[in-house]
Prior knowledge:
The two termini are 18 Å apart. The protein folds into 2 domains: 7-222, Phosphoenolpyruvate-binding domains (TIM Barrel, Alpha-Beta Barrel), CATH 3.20.20; 227-281. It contains 12 helices and 10 strands. By secondary structure, the chain is an alpha/beta fold. The protein has helices spanning 16-21, 43-56, 76-84, 99-106, 121-125, 127-131, 143-150, 162-174, 190-203, 216-222, 227-245, 260-281; strands spanning 7-12, 29-33, 63-67, 90-93, 114-118, 136-141, 178-181, 207-210, 251-253, 256-258. It binds ligand LIB3CWND and magnesium ion. Magnesium ion binds at residues 36, 94, 117, 119, 142, 144-145. Belongs to the HpcH/HpaI aldolase family. Mg(2+) binds at residues 119, 145. Its EC number is 3.1.2.-.
Amino acid sequence: xxxxxxxxxxxxxxxxxxxxxxxxxxxxxxxxxxxxxxxxxxxxxxxxxxxxxxxxxxxxxxxxxxxxxxxxxxxxxxxxxxxxxxxxxxxxxxxxxxxxxxxxxxxxxxxxxxxxxxxxxxxxxxxxxxxxxxxxxxxxxxxxxxxxxxxxxxxxxxxxxxxxxxxxxxxxxxxxxxxxxxxxxxxxxxxxxxxxxxxxxxxxxxxxxxxxxxxxxxxxxxxxxxxxxxxxxxxxxxxxxxxxxxxxxxxxxxxxxxxxxxxxxxxxxxxxxxxxxxxxxx
Length: 282
Ligand SMILES: CC(C)(COP(=O)(O)OP(=O)(O)OC[C@H]1O[C@@H](n2cnc3c(N)ncnc32)[C@H](O)[C@@H]1OP(=O)(O)O)[C@@H](O)C(=O)NCCC(=O)NCCSC(=O)C[C@H](O)C(=O)O
Ligand SMILES: [Mg+2]
Protein backbone atom coordinates (compact mmCIF):
# COMPACT_ATOMS: atom_id res chain seq x y z
CA UNK A 1 0.00 0.00 0.00
CA UNK A 2 1.57 3.27 -1.05
CA UNK A 3 -0.85 5.68 0.62
CA UNK A 4 -3.08 5.46 3.70
CA UNK A 5 -6.78 4.64 3.29
CA UNK A 6 -7.82 4.85 6.95
CA UNK A 7 -10.99 6.74 6.08
CA UNK A 8 -13.03 6.88 2.86
CA UNK A 9 -15.98 9.26 3.10
CA UNK A 10 -18.99 8.85 0.81
CA UNK A 11 -20.27 12.14 -0.51
CA UNK A 12 -23.51 12.25 -2.49
CA UNK A 13 -22.58 14.11 -5.68
CA UNK A 14 -25.99 15.79 -5.54
CA UNK A 15 -25.15 17.63 -2.28
CA UNK A 16 -23.26 20.77 -3.21
CA UNK A 17 -22.52 21.77 0.41
CA UNK A 18 -21.04 18.34 1.10
CA UNK A 19 -18.94 18.51 -2.09
CA UNK A 20 -17.54 21.83 -0.89
CA UNK A 21 -17.08 20.72 2.71
CA UNK A 22 -15.05 17.69 1.66
CA UNK A 23 -12.20 20.00 0.66
CA UNK A 24 -11.66 20.77 4.35
CA UNK A 25 -12.16 17.33 5.89
CA UNK A 26 -9.46 15.05 7.29
CA UNK A 27 -10.35 12.07 5.11
CA UNK A 28 -7.78 9.92 3.33
CA UNK A 29 -10.15 9.21 0.45
CA UNK A 30 -13.43 10.55 -0.87
CA UNK A 31 -15.98 8.25 -2.48
CA UNK A 32 -18.00 10.66 -4.62
CA UNK A 33 -21.31 8.89 -5.03
CA UNK A 34 -23.49 8.84 -8.11
CA UNK A 35 -25.23 5.60 -7.08
CA UNK A 36 -27.42 4.91 -4.06
CA UNK A 37 -27.12 8.31 -2.37
CA UNK A 38 -28.47 10.10 -5.45
CA UNK A 39 -32.15 9.85 -6.42
CA UNK A 40 -32.89 8.96 -10.08
CA UNK A 41 -34.26 12.41 -10.87
CA UNK A 42 -30.91 13.99 -9.85
CA UNK A 43 -28.50 11.49 -11.39
CA UNK A 44 -27.64 13.43 -14.52
CA UNK A 45 -27.33 16.78 -12.76
CA UNK A 46 -25.20 15.19 -10.01
CA UNK A 47 -22.80 13.81 -12.63
CA UNK A 48 -22.36 17.28 -14.13
CA UNK A 49 -21.98 18.92 -10.70
CA UNK A 50 -19.32 16.41 -9.74
CA UNK A 51 -17.34 16.98 -12.93
CA UNK A 52 -17.43 20.70 -12.18
CA UNK A 53 -16.37 20.27 -8.53
CA UNK A 54 -13.46 18.04 -9.51
CA UNK A 55 -12.37 20.45 -12.23
CA UNK A 56 -12.46 23.26 -9.68
CA UNK A 57 -10.17 21.14 -7.47
CA UNK A 58 -9.13 21.87 -3.91
CA UNK A 59 -9.33 18.26 -2.69
CA UNK A 60 -5.61 18.24 -1.90
CA UNK A 61 -3.98 14.87 -1.27
CA UNK A 62 -7.25 13.01 -0.67
CA UNK A 63 -7.78 10.09 -3.07
CA UNK A 64 -10.75 11.03 -5.26
CA UNK A 65 -12.75 7.98 -6.26
CA UNK A 66 -16.07 8.18 -8.08
CA UNK A 67 -18.74 5.55 -7.50
CA UNK A 68 -20.79 5.22 -10.66
CA UNK A 69 -24.08 3.45 -11.25
CA UNK A 70 -23.96 -0.19 -12.36
CA UNK A 71 -23.37 -0.53 -16.11
CA UNK A 72 -26.73 -2.29 -16.55
CA UNK A 73 -28.59 0.79 -15.31
CA UNK A 74 -29.66 3.61 -17.58
CA UNK A 75 -26.91 5.87 -16.15
CA UNK A 76 -23.97 3.48 -15.79
CA UNK A 77 -22.39 3.72 -19.21
CA UNK A 78 -22.63 7.51 -19.37
CA UNK A 79 -21.26 7.74 -15.84
CA UNK A 80 -18.25 5.62 -16.83
CA UNK A 81 -17.55 7.67 -19.97
CA UNK A 82 -17.87 10.91 -18.00
CA UNK A 83 -15.62 9.71 -15.15
CA UNK A 84 -12.91 8.84 -17.66
CA UNK A 85 -12.65 12.58 -18.34
CA UNK A 86 -12.91 13.73 -14.74
CA UNK A 87 -9.94 14.82 -12.64
CA UNK A 88 -10.05 11.89 -10.25
CA UNK A 89 -7.97 8.96 -9.01
CA UNK A 90 -10.27 6.01 -9.50
CA UNK A 91 -13.68 4.69 -10.44
CA UNK A 92 -15.72 2.47 -8.10
CA UNK A 93 -18.11 -0.02 -9.66
CA UNK A 94 -21.06 -1.17 -7.50
CA UNK A 95 -22.45 -4.68 -7.24
CA UNK A 96 -19.54 -6.41 -8.97
CA UNK A 97 -20.42 -10.08 -9.53
CA UNK A 98 -17.32 -11.24 -11.35
CA UNK A 99 -14.27 -10.18 -13.39
CA UNK A 100 -16.37 -9.73 -16.55
CA UNK A 101 -17.99 -6.68 -14.91
CA UNK A 102 -14.52 -5.16 -14.52
CA UNK A 103 -13.62 -6.01 -18.14
CA UNK A 104 -16.68 -4.11 -19.31
CA UNK A 105 -15.81 -1.07 -17.20
CA UNK A 106 -12.15 -1.15 -18.25
CA UNK A 107 -13.22 -0.66 -21.87
CA UNK A 108 -14.89 2.63 -20.96
CA UNK A 109 -12.54 4.35 -18.53
CA UNK A 110 -9.11 4.43 -20.16
CA UNK A 111 -6.29 3.94 -17.66
CA UNK A 112 -8.26 4.98 -14.59
CA UNK A 113 -7.67 2.62 -11.64
CA UNK A 114 -10.74 0.50 -10.94
CA UNK A 115 -12.26 -0.26 -7.54
CA UNK A 116 -14.97 -2.86 -6.88
CA UNK A 117 -17.86 -2.80 -4.43
CA UNK A 118 -18.05 -6.27 -2.87
CA UNK A 119 -21.70 -6.44 -1.94
CA UNK A 120 -23.41 -9.32 -3.70
CA UNK A 121 -23.34 -13.04 -2.83
CA UNK A 122 -21.94 -13.83 -6.28
CA UNK A 123 -19.27 -11.17 -5.84
CA UNK A 124 -18.18 -12.79 -2.57
CA UNK A 125 -18.05 -16.23 -4.21
CA UNK A 126 -15.94 -14.73 -7.02
CA UNK A 127 -13.78 -12.59 -4.73
CA UNK A 128 -10.54 -14.27 -5.81
CA UNK A 129 -11.05 -13.75 -9.54
CA UNK A 130 -12.27 -10.19 -8.97
CA UNK A 131 -9.21 -9.33 -6.89
CA UNK A 132 -6.95 -11.01 -9.46
CA UNK A 133 -8.18 -8.61 -12.17
CA UNK A 134 -5.14 -6.68 -13.42
CA UNK A 135 -6.96 -3.34 -13.42
CA UNK A 136 -8.22 -3.60 -9.85
CA UNK A 137 -6.77 -1.20 -7.26
CA UNK A 138 -8.97 -2.08 -4.31
CA UNK A 139 -12.27 -3.27 -2.92
CA UNK A 140 -14.91 -1.62 -0.76
CA UNK A 141 -17.32 -3.79 1.22
CA UNK A 142 -20.99 -2.96 0.77
CA UNK A 143 -22.37 -4.39 3.97
CA UNK A 144 -25.88 -2.95 3.51
CA UNK A 145 -26.40 -4.63 0.16
CA UNK A 146 -24.79 -7.81 1.42
CA UNK A 147 -27.09 -7.93 4.44
CA UNK A 148 -30.07 -7.33 2.15
CA UNK A 149 -29.12 -10.06 -0.32
CA UNK A 150 -28.16 -12.57 2.37
CA UNK A 151 -31.29 -11.90 4.37
CA UNK A 152 -29.31 -11.43 7.58
CA UNK A 153 -30.53 -9.65 10.67
CA UNK A 154 -28.35 -6.84 11.94
CA UNK A 155 -26.10 -7.91 14.77
CA UNK A 156 -23.78 -5.92 16.99
CA UNK A 157 -20.71 -7.99 16.18
CA UNK A 158 -21.58 -8.63 12.51
CA UNK A 159 -21.39 -12.41 12.91
CA UNK A 160 -23.69 -13.06 9.92
CA UNK A 161 -21.33 -11.10 7.66
CA UNK A 162 -18.00 -12.41 8.90
CA UNK A 163 -17.60 -15.11 6.26
CA UNK A 164 -18.16 -12.57 3.48
CA UNK A 165 -15.89 -9.96 5.07
CA UNK A 166 -13.07 -12.42 5.56
CA UNK A 167 -13.43 -14.03 2.14
CA UNK A 168 -13.09 -10.62 0.49
CA UNK A 169 -10.22 -9.62 2.71
CA UNK A 170 -8.28 -12.82 2.00
CA UNK A 171 -8.80 -12.31 -1.74
CA UNK A 172 -7.63 -8.69 -1.54
CA UNK A 173 -4.54 -9.67 0.41
CA UNK A 174 -3.75 -12.55 -1.96
CA UNK A 175 -3.52 -10.08 -4.84
CA UNK A 176 -2.15 -7.04 -2.99
CA UNK A 177 -5.28 -4.88 -3.25
CA UNK A 178 -6.49 -2.21 -0.82
CA UNK A 179 -9.44 -3.44 1.27
CA UNK A 180 -11.94 -1.04 2.86
CA UNK A 181 -14.56 -2.15 5.35
CA UNK A 182 -18.27 -1.28 4.97
CA UNK A 183 -20.12 1.68 6.48
CA UNK A 184 -21.58 2.02 9.98
CA UNK A 185 -25.10 3.30 9.44
CA UNK A 186 -25.83 4.79 12.90
CA UNK A 187 -23.73 7.86 12.24
CA UNK A 188 -24.41 9.53 15.62
CA UNK A 189 -23.40 6.39 17.59
CA UNK A 190 -19.68 6.86 18.23
CA UNK A 191 -19.35 3.95 20.63
CA UNK A 192 -20.74 1.50 18.07
CA UNK A 193 -18.54 2.99 15.38
CA UNK A 194 -15.43 2.67 17.55
CA UNK A 195 -16.20 -0.98 18.10
CA UNK A 196 -16.77 -1.67 14.42
CA UNK A 197 -13.59 0.19 13.42
CA UNK A 198 -11.59 -1.87 15.92
CA UNK A 199 -13.15 -5.06 14.57
CA UNK A 200 -12.33 -4.09 10.98
CA UNK A 201 -8.77 -3.16 11.92
CA UNK A 202 -8.31 -6.42 13.82
CA UNK A 203 -9.51 -8.34 10.77
CA UNK A 204 -6.91 -6.61 8.61
CA UNK A 205 -8.84 -4.00 6.65
CA UNK A 206 -6.86 -0.94 5.57
CA UNK A 207 -9.64 1.46 6.53
CA UNK A 208 -13.36 2.06 6.73
CA UNK A 209 -15.87 3.58 4.36
CA UNK A 210 -17.88 6.28 6.15
CA UNK A 211 -21.03 8.31 5.62
CA UNK A 212 -20.66 11.36 7.88
CA UNK A 213 -17.77 13.73 8.70
CA UNK A 214 -18.21 13.07 12.43
CA UNK A 215 -17.01 9.50 11.82
CA UNK A 216 -13.61 10.54 10.43
CA UNK A 217 -11.66 11.06 13.62
CA UNK A 218 -12.43 7.61 15.02
CA UNK A 219 -11.63 5.81 11.78
CA UNK A 220 -8.39 7.74 11.28
CA UNK A 221 -7.27 6.80 14.78
CA UNK A 222 -8.39 3.16 14.59
CA UNK A 223 -6.63 2.39 11.31
CA UNK A 224 -3.38 4.20 12.13
CA UNK A 225 -0.64 2.39 14.02
CA UNK A 226 -0.97 3.16 17.74
CA UNK A 227 1.89 4.66 19.78
CA UNK A 228 2.39 1.24 21.39
CA UNK A 229 2.56 -0.50 17.99
CA UNK A 230 5.15 2.01 16.76
CA UNK A 231 7.21 1.65 19.91
CA UNK A 232 7.13 -2.14 19.66
CA UNK A 233 8.04 -2.07 15.96
CA UNK A 234 11.06 0.12 16.64
CA UNK A 235 12.25 -2.08 19.48
CA UNK A 236 11.75 -5.26 17.43
CA UNK A 237 13.77 -3.86 14.54
CA UNK A 238 16.58 -2.78 16.87
CA UNK A 239 16.63 -6.09 18.76
CA UNK A 240 16.60 -8.16 15.58
CA UNK A 241 19.45 -6.13 14.07
CA UNK A 242 21.44 -6.73 17.23
CA UNK A 243 20.68 -10.47 17.11
CA UNK A 244 21.65 -10.66 13.44
CA UNK A 245 24.94 -8.88 14.14
CA UNK A 246 25.70 -11.70 16.55
CA UNK A 247 24.85 -14.27 13.89
CA UNK A 248 21.51 -15.16 15.48
CA UNK A 249 18.19 -15.42 13.63
CA UNK A 250 15.89 -14.82 16.58
CA UNK A 251 15.56 -11.97 19.07
CA UNK A 252 13.34 -11.71 22.14
CA UNK A 253 11.28 -8.59 22.90
CA UNK A 254 8.84 -8.36 25.81
CA UNK A 255 9.23 -12.10 26.34
CA UNK A 256 8.21 -12.97 22.77
CA UNK A 257 10.31 -14.21 19.90
CA UNK A 258 11.02 -11.90 16.98
CA UNK A 259 11.90 -13.47 13.64
CA UNK A 260 12.33 -12.17 10.13
CA UNK A 261 8.60 -12.26 9.43
CA UNK A 262 7.86 -10.05 12.45
CA UNK A 263 10.32 -7.53 11.06
CA UNK A 264 8.30 -7.38 7.85
CA UNK A 265 5.24 -6.40 9.92
CA UNK A 266 7.29 -3.98 12.04
CA UNK A 267 8.64 -2.22 8.94
CA UNK A 268 5.15 -2.05 7.45
CA UNK A 269 3.91 -0.39 10.65
CA UNK A 270 6.61 2.27 10.45
CA UNK A 271 6.01 2.77 6.72
CA UNK A 272 2.31 3.35 7.42
CA UNK A 273 3.17 5.86 10.14
CA UNK A 274 5.45 7.71 7.71
CA UNK A 275 2.81 7.66 4.96
CA UNK A 276 0.22 9.14 7.33
CA UNK A 277 2.64 11.85 8.46
CA UNK A 278 3.40 12.68 4.83
CA UNK A 279 -0.28 12.81 3.90
CA UNK A 280 -1.20 14.98 6.87
CA UNK A 281 1.71 17.31 6.21
CA UNK A 282 0.79 17.73 2.52
C1 LIG B 1 -26.48 10.81 6.68
C2 LIG B 1 -26.64 12.20 6.13
C3 LIG B 1 -27.90 12.29 5.28
C4 LIG B 1 -26.76 13.20 7.28
O1 LIG B 1 -26.73 14.51 6.72
P1 LIG B 1 -27.09 15.80 7.57
O2 LIG B 1 -28.41 15.60 8.24
O3 LIG B 1 -26.92 16.98 6.67
O4 LIG B 1 -25.97 15.79 8.68
P2 LIG B 1 -25.44 16.99 9.51
O5 LIG B 1 -26.46 18.04 9.65
O6 LIG B 1 -24.89 16.41 10.76
O7 LIG B 1 -24.24 17.54 8.64
C5 LIG B 1 -23.30 18.42 9.21
C6 LIG B 1 -22.45 19.01 8.13
O8 LIG B 1 -21.70 17.96 7.50
C7 LIG B 1 -21.99 17.93 6.10
N1 LIG B 1 -22.04 16.52 5.68
C8 LIG B 1 -22.90 15.59 6.08
N2 LIG B 1 -22.61 14.42 5.51
C9 LIG B 1 -21.54 14.66 4.73
C10 LIG B 1 -20.77 13.82 3.89
N3 LIG B 1 -21.05 12.53 3.72
N4 LIG B 1 -19.71 14.38 3.28
C11 LIG B 1 -19.40 15.70 3.43
N5 LIG B 1 -20.11 16.52 4.21
C12 LIG B 1 -21.16 16.00 4.84
C13 LIG B 1 -23.34 18.61 5.95
O9 LIG B 1 -23.45 19.12 4.64
C14 LIG B 1 -23.22 19.68 7.01
O10 LIG B 1 -22.36 20.69 6.50
P3 LIG B 1 -22.72 22.21 6.65
O11 LIG B 1 -24.07 22.37 6.03
O12 LIG B 1 -21.64 22.95 5.93
O13 LIG B 1 -22.71 22.47 8.13
C15 LIG B 1 -25.40 12.59 5.30
O14 LIG B 1 -24.30 12.52 6.15
C16 LIG B 1 -25.19 11.80 4.06
O15 LIG B 1 -25.85 12.02 3.06
N6 LIG B 1 -24.21 10.92 4.09
C17 LIG B 1 -23.79 10.15 2.95
C18 LIG B 1 -24.79 9.06 2.63
C19 LIG B 1 -24.29 8.27 1.48
O16 LIG B 1 -23.42 8.67 0.76
N7 LIG B 1 -24.84 7.08 1.29
C20 LIG B 1 -24.45 6.21 0.24
C21 LIG B 1 -23.20 5.51 0.59
S1 LIG B 1 -23.39 4.24 1.78
C22 LIG B 1 -23.62 2.86 0.80
O17 LIG B 1 -24.25 2.95 -0.19
C23 LIG B 1 -22.90 1.66 1.25
C24 LIG B 1 -22.88 0.42 0.37
O18 LIG B 1 -23.23 0.56 -0.95
C25 LIG B 1 -23.63 -0.69 1.03
O19 LIG B 1 -24.34 -1.44 0.34
O20 LIG B 1 -23.44 -0.85 2.24
MG1 LIG C 1 -24.42 -0.87 -1.80
